[in-house]
Amino acid sequence: MTTSRIATKRALFQWIATLTLLLLPQIKIGGQSLLRLDAPSRTLLFFGASIRIEEFYLFLIVVLIMVFSFLFVTMLFGRVWCGWFCPQTTITDLAEFFDKKAAKLLPNKYAAGVIKQVAALLISFVVASNLIWYFIPPGEYFTRLSHGTLGPVAGISLAAIFALVYFDLLFVRRLFCKMVCPYGRIQLLTMDRNTLTLEFNPLLKESCIRCGACTRTCPMGIDIRTGLQIECINCGRCLDACRGVMSRMKKEGLIHYTFGVRSEGGGKPLNRKSVMLGMVLVILSALLIYGVTTRKEATLKIQRASNGEVRQLPDGAIINFYTAFIENRSTIQGVYSLRVAPVAGFTTELIGPARQITIDANGNRKVDFVLKVSPAPASRRDLELQLVRGETVISVTAVPLLVK
Ligand code: SF4
Ligand code: SF4
Questions:
Q1: Is residue 227 part of a domain?
Q2: Cα→Cα distances 73→19, 195, 205, 397, Å
Q3: ω into residue 375 within 30 of 0, thus cis?
Q4: Which has the least CB within 10 A, 128, 284, 344, 396?
């Protein structure tokens, strides 16, 4: 392994994570973002599925998957999230990169200061915009931003996030990981003796030349030689530094990644706990896939017209007035019709715009219609109203037919 491999790998993972966060709301399946919470329609767009907020059980499964994924990753890999994926680490690394470049290329410290400020402002704007894209599609966001029509909620959110990130880049940076972020503390509860950590090899302790390269390079100000510390973000910079020093003496580095310490019973990432957590995740994912793929593509709700009118016609038929609420939960436009299931001895007819109802993906329609039944039944009875697409029955509900 060369001296730069951990740094290179970490940079690669950071780029992948950053691009994923930037692109998730931009990539579209069936015209819908891969991941976005569409506030106006109260719908979570989740990798091709549109989950309405009313579908509470699916929301719950999504939240559980996130919680168990967090536990699973932390138990196996410790704070690898912090050092390799966390946006806070990435934007701090970026800001430090610009700081160093500006100081190196521009001898005038005021010019270098301007470059640092511009970089911090740019990073803050991209982060704030990226967060808003999870609620407003990026194309619409830029149009509304350029026309000044973002609206108060999105506008204030954008300004607040922008200001927070800018303040963070100017004054906080790594202090956030050390003092504010609760993840390091939570990690202590989830990690076990097999969790991935950085270790100063105690067997090679005598080879340490006390050059201090590992401590100088540590962004968290830790001396890994004194043992695992809660502030360590598993970034591997100390490992690279030590390898660099030791390779010049044709020796191997003294710091390495390890899944727990073997002498203390660790060293087995695939243990009973991790397998059980992995199984819970598989079951929850299967439940989510089942729930999303087997739910109705559209729903139908019926309400009697507000005046509750019932009329007897001269030919002996009876008419009732209703309003239908139809919701297309799929990701494509649908054309639906309403029809009444046949009732022996009666003729039924729907009067009103009950056929060829076009509803956009994830949209809904309210349809007023009249139900005519002839002859009028002797007493109130429930009829079956069907929502169909072509000849396929999508949803069924009962309509109460009142008589005079
Ligand atoms: S001790 Fe090593 S792995 Fe931990 S934060 Fe410092 S440099 Fe990164
Ligand atoms: S970089 Fe390696 S050799 Fe130098 S002080 Fe740290 S552990 Fe010892």
A1: yes
A2: 20, 9, 30, 45
A3: yes
A4: 344
**Atom of ligand 2 minimally distant from the CA of 212:** 5
- The ligand with the least distance to the CA atom of 214 is 2
Can you read off the two tokens belonging to residue 32? Answer: 């819908």
Statement to judge: residues 96 and 198 lie in one domain: yes
255 Cα nearest atom in ligand 2 = 7
Closest ligand to 204 CA? 2
Domain count, the chain: 2
- Phi, psi (rounded to 5 degrees) for 246: -70, -30
- Structural domain containing residue 319: 298-401
C-beta neighbour count of 86 within 10 angstroms: 20
Q: What is the pLDDT of residues 295-351, one digit of tens each?
A: 888 999 999 987 778 999 999 999 999 999 999 887 788 999 999 999 999 999 999
Residues 276 and 372 in one domain: no
Same-domain check for residues 250 and 342 = no
**Domain CATH for 309:** 2.60.40.10
Per-residue pLDDT tens digits for 336-391? 999 999 999 999 999 999 999 999 877 889 999 999 999 999 999 999 999 999 99
Nearest ligand, CA 252? 2
229 Cα–ligand 1 center, Å: 9
Distance between Cα 83 and ligand 1 center (Å): 9
In a domain, 163, yes or no: yes
